[in-house]
Write a structure and sequence with these properties.
Layout lengths: L22 H12 L1 H15 L2 H16 L6 H14 L3 H18 L2
Helix pairs in contact: 2-5, 3-4
Length: 111
């Protein structure tokens, strides 16, 4: 089976009937193909920096590293500890703006 960075592996002929894509997979493919996913990611970065979320996460990482000791912390440790706090602290206004942009994209793409 061959794989590529830009596309999923091509299934072999002996794998059985082709599975239908889920709506989520179809939307993700359309977002990537249109370049809208990158635009949304950039918008998210900008909004999180503007509202101070990024600085807050940076401070949490520094505090955790200081508490555990610089040589005793891995990236996996940081991700495990910070991810739940980070997701919970994204402002509702940022989530709402992204959701509206995704909805607008879906209407324009007629999905």
């Amino acid at each position: 089976m061959r794989s590529s960075i830009n596309r999923p592996p091509t299934p072999d002929g002996d794998e059985g009937p082709e599975q239908e894509l889920t709506l989520q997979e179809i939307i993700n493919i359309k977002l990537i193909e249109s370049g809208e996913k990158e635009k949304l990611k950039e918008l998210l970065r900008e909004r999180l920096i503007e509202c101070g979320w990024r600085d807050e996460m940076k401070a949490l990482c520094r505090a955790f590293t200081k508490k555990k000791g610089r040589n005793n912390v891995t990236v996996d440790d940081l991700v495990h500890v910070i991810t739940p706090k980070g997701r919970a602290s994204v402002p509702d206004s940022v989530k709402a703006e992204l959701l509206q942009r995704i909805r607008s994209f879906l209407v324009s793409a007629a999905i």
